[in-house]
Sequence to fold (297 residues):
Amino acid sequence: MIIHADDFGITLEQSKDILACSAACGGEGALSSTSAMVTSPAFVESATFAKPFVDAGCIKMGLHLNLVEGQALSSAHDAPLLVAPDGRFRLGFAKMLALSLSGECEALTCQVRHEARAQIRRFLEAFPELVGRLRVDSHQHFHMIPAVFDGLLAAVADEGCTLEYLRVPAEPLGPYLKVPTIRRVVPPVNVVKNVLLNQLWKQVAAKYPADLPAPATFYGLALSGRMQHAADEAFLAGVSEAAQRDGREVELLFHPGGMPSVADCPDPDLKGFCAFYLSPDRAAEAEALRSLPRILP
Fold:
């Protein structure tokens, strides 16, 4: 299983808190993989802290492509559909999906390609050895939007990278539904997101790189932000059995990196994002990661 945390690099302390969930990095817990938000001003400092662990193979590090929160690396001149005049990203998931389905699709793909190239370059400045084994996912799973998927893959090729891993958040609901205590805490809105992302995957699946292994089976959307409930023996046993039956890797996504205040968030004006970072569920997910070694099959 890939035990993963998104959002590495927003602040140095938050990044240290994430790595503290990995026994291999000197902490306590099952975390084996993370991905970095390179648009954060604290990314370079956070990457410097993580690099010895990445170099030693203690943890996998990937790019957490961000097209929605905080400052972009592109200017509004270069990517006007993506970036507002103040330099911040301007589109939520629904608006970006609508643009992807409109006459602006080609322009959107080009602008995503431009921004993704900038983020890949910044990531590789910190981790140059990963150019031949790049791991990629995205903030809020934006890369499942067809125009974003196309722009991202084009950017990876432009920068001469070889993909090692590309997240496919097409999540099975069965293992959640089979455990009554978990089934009761899955928010209905997350079921809707699950259905949408599964449908979007069907639209882009033919473009999934043929030289990559079959995508890992992903879990972390139905309980997004509340994955402490996934630290359940019955759930993990079901996930493990399905993985063995299908012969595929599994990715479990957690978000253990919280913030102490709104001012520390990437975009204090995005209240929903800030509420997520400040939620006590961040600490609960970190505790779940610490407990996983005792209950994993």
Q: What stands out?
A: The mean pLDDT is 97. The longest strand covers residues 2-8. Strands lie at 2-8, 33-36, 60-65, 134-138, 163-166, 217-219, 250-254.
